[in-house]
Amino acid sequence: MLALDPQNFDLEGALTHFAEHGYARLGRVLSDEGIAQLGTRVDDLMHARVVHEGIFFQHDSTTGRYQELEFGKGWQGPSSHYRKLEKLERDPLFLEWIRNGLNERVARALIAGPISLYRAVLFTKSDRGGTALPWHQDGGVFWGVDRPPLLQIWTALDDCTVDSGCLEVIPGSHKAGLASPQGGVILDDALAKADAEQRATPIAARAGEGLLIHNYLWHRSGVNRSGKRRSTLSVCLMSANTRCLRKKRAPRNFLRIFD
Q: Domain ranges in the chain?
């Protein structure tokens, strides 16, 4: 499904930009065939034409407000309006893409030793608008691991334009670490201090394009006004030495992706 030769792709510029700004563009990485295959698989999973035990579903809020999302409901029947599908590594087609040669080269350039998957999650905004996602960081106590994962590889499965609620970032914000030990949504006083609204930078991407995102980079996305589905796959990779710290349930075992 790759649209390029992973061994001859020049990563140096992207890795330099990633270190400085917390994100980097990889250009077109997913082939037309891959876009079609993974896009169809998204529809099939949402409508239960393909079923895998353990995939996590979260439906959009009815208002498009993040604060009104319902948690813990999971699968709510066939629908095109799920905002989040997680544990996509359980689907063979998505796992094939996660393990592609370019992802391996990127991961090995940034992570020493064997590499595991923290999560593979689809973020979707349906054609009726989806749910806005506030400024946040992907890390902190809530992530429940003994060392912070710092690399996400994003792939646009649909066009992600400004009108459809593309990713917005604060370039360089990853350098200051977590805004709070808990991580997650960034509080209003921190946003005001950082002048986030003035520094917000949209990262539009066409279907098939890839991005590198640092977990600590401040990012958000708005609602979809394009009338077309907008979906991206986020693959978070980390050292295979990472251990789960949760105690209320059995600790997670993370899938080894690259030995």
A: 12-61+70-147+157-225+237-258
